[in-house]
Amino acid sequence: MFRRTRTAAAPAALLVLLLGAAALATRLAGGAPDPAAIDWRTDLAAARAEAAQTGRPLLVVFR
Question: How many angstroms separate the CA atoms of 12 and 20, rounded?
């Protein structure tokens, strides 16, 4: 039997398809929230504890 091999374009096409689907889902959901409306944390230790307690990821922005 012949074995099907993937071309280099297949993973790239899948990535484009997934990014397009994510963009469409964001657009249909009403877009991104207003950054001013987000309750940003300024205490890293407290934010890490909250992330661990809630099981949510932690986004750290260095300014």
Answer: 12
Tally of helices (H runs) and strands (E runs) in the chain:
2, 0
Residue 10 CB-half CA count within 13 A: 4
pTM of the model as a whole: 0.44
The range of the structural domain enclosing residue 51 comes to: 38-63
The token pair at 50 is 């909250």
- Within a domain: 31: no
Residue 51 lies in a domain: yes
On whether residue 2 sits in a domain, the answer given is no
Mean pLDDT, rounded, for 49-62: 92
Distances (CA, A) of 28 to 21, 24, 25, 31, 32: 10, 6, 5, 7, 11
